[in-house]
Amino acid sequence: MVKDIVCGMEVGKDTPYKMEYKGKTYYFCCGYCLEEFRKNPEKYLSSKSGDDLYSCGC
Ligand SMILES: [Zn+2]
Prior knowledge:
26% helix, two-stranded antiparallel ribbon, single chain
């Protein structure tokens, strides 16, 4: 399991919602999180866990 850094949920690596950024692959629980990360990757990469996480509602 890996962490969806947008909403903080645990996701499996078999998810279709993933994106490569700066040579690393990031996994997301749903398309909303993927889209949110795509729009503002640096915000999520720099935020510490527990910071205002995006709520995808899934
Ligand atoms: Zn999510």
